[in-house]
Amino acid sequence: MGRFVTHSRALMLSERAVETKAERLAALAGPIQNIFFTRRWRVITIVGSFEQFERAVAALDEDLPDDAILPAPSPGTPQPTA
Crossing angle for the helix pair 43-59 and 2-13, nearest 10 degrees? Predict the structure, then answer.
């Protein structure tokens, strides 16, 4: 839930077009709604919603300009080697 709130707030503060913001926010909110409001015995739907949320979060970076300021990775994140 914390990741949803963080990404949603960052999305709304971004300089994207309003239509793009609405699209991305809907893509983030749909899986969260499934996770919290789907019956607990529908495990496949819930697991799929987690995967769908991860894809929606990854899609947020796709339309950023090349000169966008990105946050530094956390110290525990493995860094690619050249």
Answer: 30
Neighbour-count burial of 7, counting CB atoms closer than 10 A to its CB (0-12 exposed, 13-18 middle, 19+ buried): middle
Contact 67, 59 (CB under 8 A): no
Q: What is the DSSP letter of 14?
A: S
Q: Find the angle CA(69)-CA(31)-CA(64) to the nearest 5 degrees.
A: 20
Pair 7, 32: CB distance under 8 Å: no
The band of 71, judged by pLDDT with boundaries at 50, 70 and 90, is low
pLDDT (tens digit per residue) in 55-70: 888 877 777 666 656 5
What is the token pair recorded at 51? 């995967």
Q: Considering the entire predicted model, what is its pTM?
A: 0.56
